[in-house]
Amino acid sequence: MGLTVESIRFLLEGWPQERPVRRVLTLGRQDLWVGPERLRRLLAEHGRWPPDGDAGAFREAMLKAGWRLAAFFRWLGVEETRALDASDYEGADLVWDLNQPIPDDWDGQFDLVIDGGTLEHVFHFPTALANAMRLTGVGGRLVLFTPATNYCGHGFYQFSPELFYRALSPENGFRVRRLEAAVDTAGFARLLGVRYSFPIRSRRHWVADPAEVGERVVLVDRRPVLLFVEAVKERAVRPFATAPQQSDYVPQWTRKQAAQPLAQTGPAARLAAWLQEKLGEDFCREALPRLAGCLDPLRGWRFFRRLSRANRRHYQPVVRGDHPKRP
Questions:
Q1: What is the mean pLDDT of residues 14-25?
Q2: What's this model's pTM, rounded to 2 decimal places?
Q3: What would the CATH number be for the domain defined by 2-250?
């Protein structure tokens, strides 16, 4: 588990100006897969490099650090960086199984809690997420870098945007500030017997809240996709006193009327009824779709495009230094 160039950029974009970040917790002892010079440039890019900063001293500190991520955070004013894991095999100083609720006296202890790839490996995910939410102090931030699609077999789970919009909600004391998708171009390979990693370099896309756009926000992609989530804790409450519900079902339950994905009106409805009456259900369910595929060869392309990052109602490219406006 580790943070890449794009992960660090996401963190720095949201680094608070008005509230100091003194205590940081990572779920798992997160590596930092970024070199010293790139880290220095990222700090400068986001106005975090001090005018009198000593590039040589920074490089030396990064190269000699036993835990590079903690050393990097010290340059941002962080006084203490700790790691929580189910074992101390990687040097975690808080040992706890996230399948179990944390002790009450751990609540609100950290200004920033980071998951760089732990929660998907915890069987009791709601308990693990609630633990991360409880560890975050009021006014602090919970930041998640977590698998979304094409990670089958990586962990127990891969997650949807809807999950985090509903879980990290005002009812649970949180507000999602940013939720973005990034193609995972990272990975490990060998060249001349030397193992190395690829950094994540893909352009990020802001992801719409299904409750706001009034429909499911689906993503089909041929490559692995990560979700980058930043949520602010606005008040201290026990998470999930009421279980989150998927947003498109709630209005159906309220109206006591199920959605009809094939419902049609006007001439289309009359034509559909005529075809059903004259040619029968088997024709409409079996032969008609095959006929439509022949007459409309671009149907499949349009379908998958609607479910891709090209759907601007659901996904908008993130411009560095700015955040896209919600529709």
A1: 92
A2: 0.88
A3: 3.40.50.150
Residue type, 227: L
Are 121 and 156 in contact by the 8 Å Cβ rule? The answer is: yes
Cα separation of 181 and 179, whole Å? 7
Cα separation, 309 vs 221, in Å, equals 8
314: nearest Cα among 324, 299, 302, 300: 324
Q: What is the pLDDT of residue 276?
A: 85
What type of residue is 270? Answer: R
On whether the CB atoms of residues 72 and 62 are closer than 8 A, the answer is yes
21: its two tokens = 């970040």
Phi, psi of 193 (to 5 degrees): 85, -5
Place of tokens 């009456």: 277
Whole-number pLDDT of residue 37? 95
What is the Cα–Cα distance from 76 to 38, expressed in whole angstroms?
A: 15
The SS3 assignment for 156 reads coil
- Domain borders along the chain are 2-250, 266-296
Beta carbons of 147 and 121 less than 8 angstroms apart: no
- b/e per residue 103-125 (b: at least 16 CB within 10 A): eeebeebbbbbbbbbbbbbbeeb
